[in-house]
Amino acid sequence: MRDDAKLKNLIDNLMLYLKLDSRNVDVRWLPVYKLLAQNLKDSAKSQKAASLLEQIVKIQEQTLAKDRPELPNSQRSLASAYRAYGQVQKAVSLLEQVVRIQEQILARDDPSRLDSQHTLAIAYHWNGQVEKAASLLEQVIQIGEQTLANDHPELLASQHKLARAYQANGQVEKALFLIEQVVQVKKQKISKDHPDRLCSENMLATIFWDLGRREDALQLMQHIVEVRRKVLDKHHPDLIDSEEWLKIFEGKMSETEAAESCGGFEPSESAASDEEGV
What we know:
Radius of gyration: 24 Å
Helix content: over 70%
Distance between the termini: 64 Å
Number of helices: 13
Oligomer: single chain
Strand content: under 5%
Shape: globular
Order of helices and strands: HHHHHHHHHHHHH
């Protein structure tokens, strides 16, 4: 399990030893600053991470060629930090610039270009531009299916995100077809308590619900909650999210059962008379 606090302490000691200041990045020690920025993001200090990454990106833009992978890597990290603290439009603008440059200088199946397009699609989704997100992810997946194995993590991640975009756009049948494929592959390759598998199963349960397959949705969400309770702290956001979904499913199904029970009740003549007199 990752220990962000311990890592932060180690980085602080290293920066103190090297006499480095996060407010004034020393170009000679960029890897240290990038490690600090990642730790800040992981510790939910995204605004501080963005401030540091802005300095790193500025230095790399001045010192690196546009086709060097270090620059788009830092730009994607900066966009992620922007998105994490609510600056989604800034993330979109930055990533559109990155993708535009990479489309001019890199092959269409270049991993860095595909990674940037995938990240931009996620930003589009967060920005409410769901159709643009879906369209871009379809391109990424089309290329990925030609160059990657069907169980490649990056391909599965793009398919998962596309299913989410379809669901958000009301294309629930398309979302179901795609996420069922993803879940099937993950079942064959990774353990039942793996976070990626549980995440896709969680989405599948919500899609079942959207399609009216309530028993399927309920059973799958019960399974997810059971597994996550065994492997996650009770305050973990993934567990809390699944428990909230399960509570919604159970509540709605109870309401439906109660309504059907009332609807099937035929009042006696005296009861009907009482209602009419109210």
